[in-house]
Amino acid sequence: MKRYRAIFFDWDGTAVISRSAPADAVAAAMAPLLTKGIYLFIISGTTYPNIAGGQLERYFPPAQLRYLFLGLARGSHNLGFDQNGRPTHTFDPQVSKDILLRIHQTAFDVHQELLRDYDYPTDIIFDRPNYVKVDLMPGNDRDANLFLSGDELGAVKRALARHGYHAGLAGLTELALNCGARHGLAVRPTCDAKYLEIGVLNKADNVDAFMERVLAPAGIAAEECCFWGDEFLELDCGLNGSDSFMHTPLTQGADFFDVGTVAGERPTHLTHLGGSVETFLRFLKAQAAL
Ligand SMILES: [Mg+2]
């Protein structure tokens, strides 16, 4: 097995099975790698309070936390830890209030167009940093499992079709692009079936920031890195899941692994292992043993 100097990984569905699941198992697998000076980057769409109940730093002493970083909220937050082991923001991209307001307008336009032309109901979650979530299945609660599962993809496509909307998820991302352009924004929408997320950043901004600001100064190349997630799947024609955005011009020399369990087309640059969290934890333990 190849020995990596940096491991990037998604959280929900990759490192933990659900947001309410304890982080003990993954933290135990991470600790020996951090001790060896292997960089670990958690790249998640969520915010710090949703990672291990906002207490992730409690699992590791400051010496280990030196090598732990979090890229969160779709490119909005890049966190490291200070000498005392407290999480600290490092090089967050700045999104102005004006741009944020235009992102909100864009989501509202998407909502209005679907309601006006198709009688299709959506809900909007506005309180996310630098992006909004358009809930495409407001009546369908995921409970604690905040990632693509089961036949959600089929369910949302069928629901759209019942309302006479046949362009699928690719059509919705196109709609978001058009609505964004109306407000002078080049939005970068993503969709995980339940949510259409609209913002100007995504996971590419997190991983590129860490490649440039942490790994390049440490002399670590993309070829010494690997990336893990559970949502690389092609959701619709030309529309890949949120983890696929970790594949950028800066990271393309790295190895990519998918532990997702939903069947379907995946990008050709990655290895699909399946097996969810168990597969990823087994990999971390094997790396620590090298
Ligand atoms: Mg995930």
Element layout with pairings:
Layout: E1 6-9, H1 24-35, E2 39-43, H2 62-65, E3 68-72, E4 77-81, E5 87-89, H3 97-118, E6 123-125, E7 131-135, H4 152-162, H5 168-182, E8 190-191, E9 195-199, H6 203-215, E10 225-229, E11 234-236, E12 239-240, E13 255-258, E14 270-272, H7 276-289
Parallel strand pairs: 1-2, 1-10, 2-3, 10-13, 13-14
Antiparallel strand pairs: 3-4, 4-5, 6-7, 7-9, 8-9, 11-12
Helix pairs in contact: 1-7, 3-5
The structure holds magnesium ion (MG).
Give your account of this protein's structure:
This protein is an alpha/beta fold. The protein has two domains: 6-93 and 202-289, 3-Layer(aba) Sandwich (Rossmann fold), CATH 3.40.50.1000; 97-199. The chain is built from seven helices and 14 strands. Helix 1 (24-35) packs parallel to helix 7 (276-289). The N and C termini lie close together (8 Å). Magnesium ion (MG) binds at residues 10, 12-14, 147, 229-231.
